[in-house]
Amino acid sequence: MAQTAPVAPAARGELEQAPGAVAAGAPLLQVEDLHVAAEGREILHGVDLAVGEGELHAIMGPNGSGKSTLANALLGNPAYEVLSGRVLYRGEDVTSLPPDARARRGMFLAFQYPEEIPGVPISQFLRQAAAERTGSPVSVLEVRVRLREWLDRLGMDPTFGERHLNDGFSGGEKKRNEILQMALLQPDLAVLDETDSGLDIDGLRTVARGVEEVRLARPGLGVVVVTHYRRILDELSPDRVHVLFDGRIVESSGPELAARLERDGYEAWRR
Q: Edge-to-edge, what's the strand order for the sheet holding 189-193?
């Protein structure tokens, strides 16, 4: 989970960066006829998707439809094998790139089940990740300043950064920590893999407000939200909603599609 090209830190302690240029006429993210397998079984059977700068897209579908497979394939998880098709980011074919190379280019994945790493303070993790992203050392002070700023903006405890990475965290704390990382690492494309799962309504609203705060700070940020439920979309107002069913996107429309899915379910595609 890192970020784009090397840049000099801003004078006010912000990890500024020159935004990468999208190739003329190309969307921020373009997925072309993507076929993906895991554990020897094909799960995605030809997914096509395009996400523009500043857009928020939602991927919805029943259990086993391939939503998390798509999220992991976009970020290059080696447990998922791309059989054919392409993932284009800013017009560049990144299909064969490892996760760290995609992260340095500005791609970010918020995990459905974040790992616990005892002994590693969040502030230290973020400093190392930011240095990896920029290609140059990041000072302790710089990270502390930005961490304090974002903890305040996200309504989180000021001491949160000194806790160990997800160690002993509640489900809601883990999800808020993913949004904190997204804020500090400044991606240009964020894929949120069921960030709303396991959250009560208050936790969901807190996470959604965090996503909106990051989007406000980075208007060009493209976001792909993978979710089972409409609840988080009521808070985030997606530009497009896509139905992923049996490894294919079978319908795309505006926010009204999420309301129809909540009302009617996925029976239309089971016939």
A: 107-110, 189-193, 222-227, 56-60, 240-245, 248-253
Residue 107 lies in a domain: yes
In 3D, which of 32, 94, 40, 54 has the Cα closest to residue 190? 54
Helices 122-134 and 140-153: crossing angle, nearest 10°?
110
Strands 189-193 and 29-38: unpaired
* CATH number, position 227: 3.40.50.300
- Asked, for residue 37, whether it belongs to a domain, the answer is yes
Q: Are 129 and 181 in contact (CB under 8 A)?
A: yes
Query: What is the spatial distance between Cα 157 and Cα 124, in angstroms, rounded to a whole number?
Result: 17
Domain count of the chain?
1
| Residues in Cβ contact with 268 at an 8 Å cutoff, skipping those fewer than 6 apart | none
Query: Closest by alpha carbon to 242, among 94, 85, 55, 83?
Result: 55
d(CA 163, CA 152): 16
Q: Is residue 9 part of a domain?
A: no
What are the tens digits of pLDDT across the range 129-179? 988 887 788 889 999 999 999 999 998 999 999 999 999 999 889 999 999
Q: pTM of the entire structure?
A: 0.88
* Domain of 38, in residue numbers: 29-269
- Spatial distance between the Cα atoms of 199 and 206, rounded to a whole number of angstroms: 10
Q: How far apart are CA 102 and CA 191, in angstroms?
A: 12
Q: Does residue 106 fall inside a structural domain?
A: yes
